[in-house]
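R.M. (postdoc): so does anyone remember the format we settled on? I'll just put the structure tokens first.
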């Protein structure tokens, strides 16, 4: 009669998705360091179709504050520059022969504050989603208890285990946000 353990196991993949999504979102936030994830998902209009930049070019970081984009084909450069100009990452792309370079300037204080606010919003969204999964699992445990599939004392054990799991994921979310704030402050 350990079906409450199944309920708890079933939400773990969903909680992992929440953390994975937050990680992707935080990687898109610019820090004082260059990172390919800042631009790899930028949508480029190329020959009437839209592609993520990572499908059109090699993206590297030759220096701590520089991103180098080397398109597979020279004809992509114009579309890439146009898409990068619209992103608002705070730096202008420069065409350098067959490549595009982005030199990231240092972050000013106002921009840092906005980034930190953005991180807090993304953390809160993730926490809300984690709480939603907790509520859903708890509701399922209560329903199964009413139906006689879970014993009353297992119901309370389930509540404790569920809360421990949620606490672990909340801690991961907090640590990810804290690490990103440190990167921005550097």
């Amino acid at each position: 009669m350990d079906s409450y353990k199944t309920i708890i196991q079933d939400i773990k993949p969903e909680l992992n998705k929440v953390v994975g999504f937050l990680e992707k979102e935080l990687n898109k936030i610019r820090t004082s360091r260059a990172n390919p994830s800042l631009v790899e998902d930028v949508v480029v209009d190329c020959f009437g179709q839209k592609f993520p930049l990572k499908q059109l070019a090699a993206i590297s970081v030759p220096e701590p504050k520089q991103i180098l984009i080397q398109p597979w084909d020279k004809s992509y450069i114009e579309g890439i520059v146009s898409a990068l100009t619209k992103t608002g990452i705070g730096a202008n792309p420069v065409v350098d022969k067959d490549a595009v370079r982005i030199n990231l300037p240092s972050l000013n204080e106002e921009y840092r504050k906005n980034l930190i606010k953005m991180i807090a919003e993304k953390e809160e969204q993730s926490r809300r989603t984690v709480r939603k999964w907790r509520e859903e699992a708890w509701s399922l445990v209560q329903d199964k208890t009413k139906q006689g599939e879970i014993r009353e004392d297992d119901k309370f054990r389930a509540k404790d285990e569920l809360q421990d799991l949620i606490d672990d994921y909340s801690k991961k979310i907090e640590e990810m946000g804290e690490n990103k704030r440190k990167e921005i402050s550097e």
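R.M.: ...and that's the designed sequence above, right after the tokens. Also worth knowing: The two ends are 52 Å apart (CA to CA). The mean pLDDT is 89.
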